TrEMBL record:
Originating gene: MP65_1
Example GO molecular function: glucan endo-1,3-beta-D-glucosidase activity
UniProt KW Secreted keyword: yes
Protein name: Cell surface mannoprotein mp65
GO biological process: carbohydrate metabolic process; cell wall organization
Family membership noted in the UniProt record: Belongs to the glycosyl hydrolase 17 family.
Keywords: Cell wall, Cell wall biogenesis/degradation, Glycoprotein, Glycosidase, Hydrolase, Secreted, Signal
Biased composition (Low complexity): 66-124
Lineage summary: Eukaryota, Fungi, Dikarya, Ascomycota, Pezizomycotina
Organism whose genome encodes this protein: Friedmanniomyces endolithicus
Length: 384
């Protein structure tokens, strides 16, 4: 049996996307108001409202008084929240995988407008259709996966609403788009190298070939400001360039840049230039957060990002927990803790989150700065 994870009682492992590990950010205190809803709830301008069903599973999340979508009939169990994360660069500099999402720009207050609404299931957590998963199309030797290999991977992760990828190398926009279309999913595509934005955007345009119906978002860069690779001005300029080229090719979807929640809060120009705020948040790297508290930590940082961005819609574009590696304070990597962290995140979020990552990324290099966990974020263990 592969090193996959079982989420909630009797549930098969959920997929996670490869991530680039980055230095841990200190958690800052965040006040979170939680309201449990069974029939009707009235709240006056709370910081955060999480609507849950009668078994405590989130069905909607709302920030800063934005009205949340509350089901008329509370389901017996809601679909899980997704998690995803980006980590340090691989030795080859190839981008990490992409996440899934809905057609409309994500809004913390309600489920994505075009993504399937989480449905009840006899097994809690069985439905991941409202969530996004990151995916990386690389073999353990850093070579590119073929279309057949990508298709095989998607037979495992097809239950998600959207898939996030990070770049255009290995012709991955085309190969992943083919698999996404076959499974009725959405694509969160990406430009990895901001300095090569024109060429990478053209590859995305070529892959779409005039049909943008499966594209939800195109991201320009991933944690480039946080890791010092680019200035804020460089990223903002690249977003404008990409948006113009994409619109000229008929694309009318979202264009964003993705960075850590720390960089996004410190540089709100990044989210102001984006169609929504897209931030990576990995509680494991904080060092003061246990697996069981991962969801509340991520929720608090999502609130802070939304506030720093003037109340803009916010998606957590990477979050998760490693199944192996070294302990980082209260954060202990293990399969059991990965399950606990993912369930905690699912309880806190009903949508607008990308789980990291689908499979273990054996193509990456472990190092002390990532606590030897770089290769072990895959929810489904090793790729088939």
């Amino acid at each position: 049996m592969k090193a996959g994870l079982l989420f909630v009682a009797g549930i098969a492992a959920a997929a996670a996307h490869p991530r680039r590990h980055h230095h841990p950010a200190k958690r800052q205190a965040t006040e979170i108001n939680v309201v449990t809803v069974v029939d009707t709830v009235t709240a006056v301008e709370p910081s955060v409202i999480v609507y849950v069903d009668d078994v405590g599973v989130a069905v909607s999340t709302s920030f800063f008084g934005t009205p949340a979508t509350t089901p008329t009939d509370t389901p017996t169990s809601a679909a899980p929240s997704t998690y995803a994360e980006t980590t340090t660069e691989s030795s080859s500099g190839q981008p990490p995988p992409a996440s899934s999402s809905s057609d409309a720009a994500p809004a913390p207050s309600s489920a994505p407008s075009s993504a399937p609404t989480p449905t009840s299931s006899s097994a809690p957590g069985a439905d991941f259709s409202g969530y996004t998963l990151s995916y990386s199309p690389y073999n353990s030797d850093n070579s590119c996966k073929s279309q057949d290999q990508v298709n095989s991977d998607f037979n495992v992760i097809s239950g998600y609403g959207m898939i996030r990828i990070y770049g255009t190398d290995c012709d991955q926009t085309a190969t992943v788009l083919t698999a996404v279309k076959a499974k009725g999913m959405k694509l969160f595509a990406g430009v990895y190298d901001v300095n090569n934005v024109n060429a990478e955007v053209q590859q995305i345009v070529n892959a779409a070939n005039g049909d943008w119906s499966n594209f939800h978002t195109v991201s320009i860069g991933n944690e480039g400001v946080n890791n010092g690779a680019y200035s804020v001005d460089q990223v903002v300029s690249a977003i404008g360039t990409a948006r113009s080229t994409l619109q000229a090719a008929g694309y009318t979807g979202n264009v964003v840049t993705v960075d850590t929640f720390v960089a996004m809060i410190a540089n709100p120009e990044l989210c102001q230039a984006s169609d929504y705020a897209a931030a990576n948040c990995h509680p494991f790297f904080d060092g003061g957060v246990s697996a069981e508290d991962a969801g509340q930590f991520v929720l608090g940082q999502a609130q802070r990002v939304s506030e720093a961005c003037g109340g803009k819609d916010t998606m957590i574009t990477e979050t998760g927990w490693p199944s192996d590696g070294e302990t980082n304070g209260k954060a202990v990597p293990s399969q059991d803790n990965q399950v606990a962290a993912v369930n905690s995140i699912r309880t806190a979020f009903s949508n607008n989150i990308v789980l990291f990552s689908a499979f273990n990324d054996k193509w990456k290099q472990n190092n002390p700065s990532t606590f030897g966990a770089e290769q072990y974020w895959g929810i489904y263990g090793d790729a088939p």
